[in-house]
Amino acid sequence: SFTMNMYLFVYDLMQFCGHSWIFTNMMIRFMTFGKDSLADTFYSIGLVMRLCQLLSVLEILHILIGIDKSRLLPRFLQITERIIVLFVVINSQEEVQGKYVVCVLFFLWNLLDVVRYTYNMLSRMGIYYLPLTWLNFSLCIPLYPLSVLAKGFAICVSLPYFESFGTYSIKLPLPFAFSIYFPYILKMYLLVLFIGMCFITQNLFSERKAHLGTGNIKNKRS
Questions:
Q1: Cα–Cα distances in Å, from 102 out to 78, 153, 192, 209?
Q2: How far apart are CA 185 and CA 35, in angstroms?
Q3: pLDDT of the residue at 174
Q4: Which residue ranges in the chain fall short of pLDDT 70?
Q5: Which of 31, 109, 164, 198 registers the highest number of CB atoms within 10 A of its CB?
Q6: How far separated are the first and last CA of the chain, in Å rounded?
Q7: Which long-range contacts (CB under 8 A, 24 or more apart) does 185-191 make?
Q8: Helix (H) or strand (E) holding 76
Q9: What is the pLDDT of residue 222?
Q10: pLDDT at 1
């Protein structure tokens, strides 16, 4: 158990360092170059962002093998949302990478993750600061729906490029005579995205109530 706890601490530390670097880089670039820094956000931090998101897939494995007690479905949905939008939508269309919505999306993701991984690291050591606990379970409630709106907007912005270039669209030869038009799949995914947002938001409220209830606050203070 000590070994697993140490492993999870190292994992959280790696994620914290990655997201902190991204967040700090974005802030410094914006203060230095202003609005001009927004257009090339993906080019300056996209590699680290992709590495952090790929690493987050391990969190699903952590839940499956029982070393993380988080609920599987909400975490699975959150991770797959990011993977699909980052790798399928943004990474595959260079024209989308320079849009301001990418900067907004990265800002929301990293703000949430810096707080979350800070809380996780301290909790592995049995340290609970009430302001940080409150921030971790409260900040996600307004910011997660905003990030979903940004994801939806990024998908909408990408649709004309998927239509023009035919990326991921497949037309099977005879005798199948069947085609897969990827923009239709993205439009259907938008519906799934917003249905998932309702479910995950409800779960976030439940987690907040469980961790910030009067009894839990007293126990952590003591």
A1: 17, 10, 21, 32
A2: 33
A3: 62
A4: 174-177, 214-222
A5: 109
A6: 24
A7: 186/89, 186/155, 186/158, 186/159, 186/162, 187/159, 189/84, 189/155, 190/152, 190/155, 190/156
A8: helix 72-83
A9: 47
A10: 78
8 Å CB contact between 42 and 107 = no
How far apart are the C-alpha atoms of 213 and 193, rounded to whole Å? 30
Question: Both tokens of residue 187?
Answer: 């439009």
* Cα–Cα dist 176/58, whole Å: 38
DSSP, collapsed to helix, strand or coil, labels residue 128 as: coil
Assign 202 to helix, strand or coil: helix
Q: Is 215 exposed, middle or buried (0-12, 13-18, 19+ CB in 10 A)?
A: exposed
User: What is the reported pLDDT for 37?
Assistant: 82
For residues 26 and 118, what is the distance between their CA atoms, to the nearest angstrom? 19
Residue 126 vs residues 122, 207, 219: alpha-carbon distances, Å? 6, 18, 12
Spell out the residues 6+ positions from residue 76 whose beta carbon is closer than 8 angstroms to its own: 60
E strand spans, 49-203: 170-171, 179-180
